[in-house]
């Protein structure tokens, strides 16, 4: 009887040894990663892969496996690699990086793509944009406007490819009493348009008229008053309390220069812009300060950069931080959902706290709850 029991035990034990690896493999989360590994954007892709490795180390779970594939920043190569990942049984993919590489991905219908793009319009139905989109940024700006009871705001939008994204962000964020102006980024055209928006010529003429009036008056203090007026460029106010400039880098600085030229000062009106990723050159532009903008959590970003630099001896790009968080987000959702329902979890209402900040997932979209910052006297300060 004991021999029979031992034989049965060994048979059952060996059976479980045989099926356990298969069971384990079946329950792994297999994630595809579509990034440029060749071509001029290869360095971006390689840093994203390193960031996902960091995330896997921090999660410290054998449950997740990541399979990178090259896109070469080409839509056709992206589609080919996506199909190869799908044939491996993978139906959840982080990437691709660029909006232009999404155009054929609706052909891989049973795969969900978490793209790094911050564009939200005209996406294939199986693509979720995970970048810092205009909705997230304008939601944060709107919160600042409400808290400071700023009721008259204008928005300056360049005539570039992302103007419709800004319009969509305005619609979704529901900023009130907002006037929109589109401008040409050419400096000569830009200055003319800013002059019209700020009613510069009328305000300038008001100054000349007031000086002429005083000169012809019997006012006993007219000489002192005229001297004070001659220090000014204009008389009269502009019809807004805050200006939101949806621009970046040198183009942003050109807009600010035009505003300063038309005698609109950040000391008197709120100068607000979009996410600048903590552009250090803004710290030195004292004439444009104070200036405000929404962005990710700076302390968390610095912690990630320190960890990445220690591990790989190089500074990470911004997409590295996003890819780190996306791996964590997938793992977090896997703890609350079965593997077969994991892709559906991205279409339902969820929230997740990552290094960037808090992700809000709803209606096949990801928005970010951003922080709000102010630069004044060469110092960056967190407002909320």
Question: Explain this structure to me?
Answer:
The chain is an alpha/beta fold. It folds into two domains: 28-132 and 299-369, 3-Layer(aba) Sandwich (Rossmann fold), CATH 3.40.50.2300; 134-295 and 372-382, Rossmann fold (3-Layer(aba) Sandwich), CATH 3.40.50.2300. It is 45% helix and 19% strand. The longest helix is centred in the N-terminal third of the chain and has 25 residues, at 2-26. It is elongated.
What's the β-strand tally? 15
How would a textbook summarize the main sheet? 7 strands, mixed
The CATH architecture of the largest domain is 3-Layer(aba) Sandwich
| CATH superfamily membership of the largest domain | Response regulator
> Based on the structure, what is the oligomeric state of the protein chains?
single chain
The total of helices stands at: 13
Helix content: 40-55%
Low-confidence stretches: 1-24
Strand fraction: 15-25%
User: How many domain modules?
Assistant: 2
Key features?
Rossmann fold; 5-stranded parallel beta sheet; 13 helices; 15 strands; 19% strand; disordered N terminus
How is the topology of this model organized?
Layout: H1 2-26, E1 29-35, H2 42-59, E2 64-70, H3 75-87, E3 92-94, E4 112-115, E5 127-129, H4 134-147, E6 153-158, H5 163-173, E7 178-183, H6 187-197, H7 200-215, H8 222-230, E8 242-245, H9 249-261, E9 270-273, H10 281-284, E10 291-295, H11 298-312, H12 318-336, H13 342-345, E11 350-353, E12 358-362, E13 365-369, E14 371-376, E15 379-382
Parallel strand pairs: 1-2, 1-3, 3-4, 4-5, 6-7, 6-8, 8-9, 9-10
Antiparallel strand pairs: 10-14, 11-12, 12-13, 14-15
